[in-house]
Design goal:
The protein is of the alpha+beta class. The chain has three domains: about 120 residues, no CATH class; about 80 residues, PDZ domain (Pdz3 Domain), CATH 2.30.42.10; about 180 residues, 2-enoyl-CoA Hydratase, Chain A, domain 1 (Alpha-Beta Complex). About 30% of the residues lie in helices and about 20% in strands. Strands 3, 4, 5, 6, 7 and 8 form a six-stranded antiparallel sheet that branches. Strand 17 and strand 18 form a beta hairpin. The longest helix is centred in the N-terminal third of the chain and has 18 residues. The N terminus is likely disordered.
């Protein structure tokens, strides 16, 4: 990603990583036509503002999109086709649908327009905060603090017309309430569910969700909090760490929900060197769903030919430098594994660091950056990316052990994780 990990404008940093967000694999996909539409009337929306936003998005794509040929499109002609729909748009949501329909014609990952009704708007604003501050973050976030009311899920409509959970971030209200991947959220406090709107003004107060789980309909109370994306993803990583006892072996598990920042790799190294996973006999490294942004050099964690140092100051405080994991490891991947995480999966497989378990990754490996435009945020692919000379965009990485995800009705069962435990424990 161009600036997702370190938001400085260095070209070297741009090429280090493919730009993400998962959501989540769902996070960077165009919205499904089946997604429920919100009210078309919006007192704060002005048609002239919508046209201005559309024009700015179109011009930004014209000037900054990675392919000067716009993947074979006549970009001025595209503008003329969509402009009438923009002029008819009566809300920010309907405007976003038109813009995303236009962007989808580019057939490029990391190219989508988000609105404040979506958690991804805030997550991307936080990931790209450095770049956005230089471009003008203040109008959208006057106090500089980026947060939103939520419960810590990764979800999307995926053509069902219902909001299906694809991931529950560890250490969040959603996990505490017992929500699961595969659950479909239909309503909140008796009204149609909205990922952000359902929790506006309700932080700290119980919200009752109507959830479809298989053939069952559940009423699940959850207490939303004010989520700061980086803190949420970091806590999710740390809270996910645990030991699974199997066949006489201690299998460590950790889920990296977001890799858009070296802070996450440092947290992983701390868990492995002196934290909850230091005594594990093997490791499950879960890179399913969430955001990417990882740097290729993170695979050095598994380079057994380099030393690890432990330094201790006069107070007795110790720190490990150049941490290495020299025990067996398996990586979990799925269709929500994207961007920089796919680069890691590619290297993990090519250099035979361990088993790659799950399903093919998304194939979303372009370098991107973000722009605040109008009342929304444009994520735009601005550079092409090859990995060891190979193109992963539109291709993805296949696992060494194919294991489909469980059905939504399977509850807490995770067949991909179960297979990893079996492989590492010799069961």
């Amino acid at each position: 990603m161009k600036e997702a990990i370190d938001p400085s404008p260095s070209r070297r940093q741009v090429l280090r990583l493919a730009a993400m967000v998962t959501a989540c694999a769902v996070a960077a996909k165009a919205p499904s036509a089946a997604a429920p539409l919100k009210g078309e009337a919006n007192d704060s929306y002005a048609s002239a503002d919508g046209v201005a936003t559309f024009e700015s998005v179109w011009q930004t794509v014209r000037d900054r999109f990675y392919d000067p040929r716009h993947n074979g499109l006549d970009w001025p002609e595209v503008r003329e086709r969509y402009l009438p729909d923009v002029q008819r748009a009566a809300s920010l949501d309907s405007l976003a649908r038109v813009i995303n329909a236009m962007l989808s014609e580019l057939h490029a990952s990391h190219t989508r327009f988000y609105t404040p009704d979506e958690p991804e708007y805030y997550q991307l604003a936080d990931i790209f905060a450095g770049a956005l501050r230089r471009r003008g973050l203040h109008p959208a976030f006057p106090d500089g603090r980026i947060s939103y009311p939520g419960i810590g899920i990764i979800s999307g409509y995926e053509g069902t017309g219902r909001n299906a959970i694809t991931g529950v971030i560890d250490g969040t209200p959603a996990q505490e309430a017992g929500l699961r991947a595969g659950d479909e959220i239909i309503a909140a406090d008796g009204t149609a569910f909205e990922p952000v709107g359902s929790f506006q003004g309700k932080v700290g107060k119980a919200v009752v969700l109507e959830v479809h789980r298989g053939a069952s309909v559940l009423q699940i109370p959850v207490v939303p909090v004010d989520l700061e994306p980086t803190k949420m993803f970091l806590r999710g990583l740390e809270s996910s760490a645990r030991i699974i006892e199997s066949n006489g072996r201690r299998i460590g598990y950790v889920h990296v929900w977001c890799y858009a920042g070296s802070i996450y790799q440092r947290a992983l190294e701390a868990l492995l060197s002196q934290g909850a996973l230091k005594d594990a006999d093997a490791l499950i490294w879960d890179l399913r769903d969430g955001w990417g942004g990882a740097r290729p050099e993170y695979l050095d964690l598994f380079n057994a030919r380099a030393p690890t140092m432990q330094v201790t100051d006069k107070s007795g405080r110790s720190e490990f430098v150049n941490v290495k994991w020299r025990k067996p490891v398996a990586m979990l991947i799925n269709g929500g594994t994207r961007s920089g995480k796919e680069v890691l999966a590619y290297g993990f497989k090519k250099y035979r660091l361990g088993e790659l378990i799950g399903t093919r990754t998304e194939g979303a490996v372009l370098a991107a950056t973000a722009f605040l435009i109008g009342s929304g945020l444009l994520l735009l692919a601005v550079e092409d990316v090859l990995v060891d000379g190979e193109r992963l965009e539109g291709v993805g990485v296949t696992p060494t052990i194919e294991v489909p995800a469980g059905a939504a009705s399977a509850g807490a069962d995770d067949p991909q994780m179960s297979r990893a435990v079996a492989v590492l424990s010799g069961a």
